[in-house]
Amino acid sequence: MFDKYMICENGFRNRLAAGEVGGFEFGARLPYYRGLGLSMVENIEVSVDGQPVPRERLRFKLRERAYTLTEMETAYEEVWEMGEVAQIQVLHPGGLSPGPHKIELAETLRISYMPFPITGRDTKTLTLAG
Amino acid sequence: MSASHSVKRGVSLYSYQEEYFLRKLTLEQCIAEAAAIGAFGIETLAEQMMPGFPRLSDAFYEQWHQWMARYNARPVCHDMFLDTKRYKGRLLSEQECIDSIVRDLKHAARLGCKVMRMLVFVSPELLEKCLPYAEQYDVKMGIEVHAPWHFDHPWIMRHVEMIQRTGTRHAGFVPDMGIFTRRLPRVLRDRALRNGATPKILDYVSQAYENGVLSEYIVAETRNMGGNAVDMGYAEASRHNVYSQPKRLLEFMPSIFHIHAKFYEMLEDGTEYSIPYDKIVPVLIQGGFDGYLSSEYEGNRHIQDAFPVDSIEQVRRQHAMFRRLLGESTSAVA
């Protein structure tokens, strides 16, 4: 559910400011009808233009704080609220070239009342301003 | 308003999740919309529309009660969750589960709710251990009897046994009317079709479900017919849904605290495609049910890939149906 809203249409941009490891980011939401603690976001997978991004190059940024996926596993108090936009950041020196890029996002959630984790998926082609 | 029964109308704000998710409606606007159609009983999911839960401020609760007064609405039910899988690699201990449930009981009490929806996976043993706290906060804990469970399922029969043995008035049920799904939702079939299902197989599954064919047979036959993955998913829907007998509610009426009026698609003729409310509401009246029929619209997830979702219109139609079935004057509310 809500899979089609996972990747936000707005907010796709390069992050090349001084002091940052270069890369890019896009806005993302949970494919779920309620908020979920970060420790229960079992996995986030991203592909860009068909190339899977290695886990260690992903960051999840919520309300000005960036987490590695490993840090998320023990983030017990922070909740990604229902419909709230977080930033998925990809460490990618030099950023991406201007123009369209195909983004694929999968979010796997540990929902306690279900016998197995659920995975939401979305794919969108977003355009990076030149 | 008919004087011959005490069934009241409400809305679980879950129904407006699509609009809330997309920030087209705020929590206050959801409350206002429910009240505007005469559905004054408000049910909420804190983890859905109350960001910051469980650390909500005093100011939030003050605001909440101001809204209730402003819209002449009544807090009725809080839907709890229980994150037994909060920690990677281990489940919550029993004491951690109790602590989490007590946290929710306190929240329900602060909202002014007398009922708390318990997820069906809460065991009778855990529920029993929470009874002293439910009494302390005076909140009734209602196990959500949700399809494919039903009142004659062994898991629910164990809850019934605990309730009868203890004589408690603080544990009971919140039946979800999805246990009376007579036909598989049409919106589910149409989505399967968009996703590449085989029309002939969808027709078979839909008809077999309506005929009461055992779901194991439906799944096996779909496989025999060469069903693809989407076809198999639709066949599996015959496992996740169930049509039990609405009259079974009568036996359990004293421990039914609240009703989840689940629906998937209100038709223009004022009926729900899958769930026969014309068979259900008379049973509630006959049994003297004096709680709330609380809308739970869940069609959005099946149409959002292809169509705009209008939860407001869907809920309005359901309440027009309820007014008719409850004998309320149709001119009383727009």
Major β-sheet strand ordering of chain B: 6-5-4-3-2-1-8-7
Largest interface: A-B, 24 and 28 residues
Residue ranges of chain B: pLDDT <50 for 5 or more in a row? none
- What is the overall silhouette of chain A? globular
Biggest β-sheet description of chain B: 8 strands, parallel
Rounded average pLDDT of chain B: 96
| Widest beta sheet: strand line-up of chain A | 1-2-9-6-7
Give unreliable regions of chain A as ranges.
Answer: none
Counted up, domains of chain B total 2
Average the pLDDT over all residues of chain A and give the rounded result.
Answer: 95
Can you write the helix and strand succession of chain A as a string?
EEEEEEEHEEEE
Question: In the CATH classification, which architecture of chain A applies?
Answer: Sandwich
Q: How would you classify the quaternary structure?
A: heterodimer
> Which descriptor suits the 3D outline of chain B?
globular
Helix content of chain B: 40-55%
CATH-derived topology of the largest domain in chain B: TIM Barrel
The secondary structure category of chain A is: mainly beta
Classify the beta-strand content of chain B into a percent band.
Answer: 5-15%
Rounded to an integer in angstroms, the radius of gyration calculated over CA atoms of chain B is 20 Å
Percentage of residues in strands of chain A: over 45%
